[in-house]
Specification:
alpha/beta; 14 strands; single chain; 8-stranded mixed β-sheet; 8 helices; 4-stranded mixed β-sheet; Rossmann fold
Length: 288
């Protein structure tokens, strides 16, 4: 068990309901900078940070460049091809996956950073997709507790859970700022909010992915919901101890998943040689 799992582990038996955010309930006095974004055939608003505080995604939107456009478009095509599918977006940030998906299917968006989910909520309201998206202000973990967060000052997508009162560094050792605390819940806790028994999943939790998928906290979800594809940031996952990484891999391999890269090539090398992002696919495999 890592240091986050050890922190107040006894709290994991307590009841912790997802904190659902109603878009119109977000502070209307806050002025967000919202710009039109374009992906596939769709145009929709995205509410961004300043380029000084978010030099990756927000700067890209201002330059009409959509981060991860190709892989997101692949997921959107899957949603279009099967109306039973919905999207579960864990680590939604300001909504680059969730906002276009909500124009096609039902979406659950989970984001622990209030600064980001409030921007996503405003974009949902402006884009009039309230009925298709459920916003959750929590983090997904293997323990129910309350944890602070850190964030890299110039990349708001690099927000992560910490077990200390002050952020001392990003997972890669860069300077960071401390964000307010957030409550953690299990993936299983999302089940009552699902609209379908079939879903695609994207997970980007800055290395915490290893704690999202455990049999006791996520197994019921995967037993109840058919999830043919899971897109996951891998670059920080592989830095965990071998037993923790193996636990994550066993979660998927025991459920008949295989790992692929973004080009739909099956990964057969040691996991430490896998690319920055991986896609777990369940038989029968679909092409992204």
């Amino acid at each position: 068990m890592n240091e986050i799992a050890e922190k107040k582990a006894t709290e994991s038996t307590s009841i912790s309901l997802p904190r659902v955010v109603i878009p119109t309930s977000v502070n209307q006095n806050v002025k967000f900078h919202c710009k039109p974004a374009y992906l596939m055939y769709m145009k929709f608003p995205v509410c961004i940070y300043t380029t000084e505080t978010d030099e990756v995604i927000s700067r890209g939107i201002l330059r009409k460049k959509y981060f991860e456009a190709k892989v997101i478009s692949g997921f959107l095509r899957l949603l279009l091809s099967d109306k039973r599918l919905q999207l579960v977006d864990i680590g939604a940030n300001i909504g680059l996956w969730s906002l276009p998906a909500a124009r096609i299917s039902q979406v659950i968006s989970v984001e622990p950073n209030w600064n980001s989910i409030s921007r996503l909520a405003k974009a949902v309201e402006l884009g009039a997709v309230d009925s298709n998206i459920t916003l959750i202000h929590n983090a997904i973990s293997n323990v129910r507790t309350t944890l602070r967060m850190g964030v890299f000052a110039t990349n708001q997508g690099n927000a992560f859970l910490i077990s200390t009162d002050k952020c001392n560094g990003t997972p890669t050792g860069l300077p960071c700022l401390t964000l307010p605390p957030t409550k953690t819940i299990f993936l299983n806790d999302l089940l009552p909010l699902m609209h379908s028994k079939r879903a695609l999943m994207k997970v980007d939790t800055e290395g915490h992915e290893v704690n999202v998928f455990t049999n006791s906290t996520a197994g019921e979800f995967f037993d109840s919901i058919d999830v043919p594809v899971v897109f996951m940031e891998w670059i920080l996952c592989k830095r965990h101890s071998a037993d923790i990484v193996q636990r994550l891999l066993d979660f998927f391999f025991s459920r008949k998943y295989s790992a692929f890269d973004k080009h739909n090539s099956k990964l057969t090398s040691h996991y430490f040689r896998w690319p920055s992002d991986v896609i777990f696919k369940k038989i029968p495999y679909v092409r992204i």
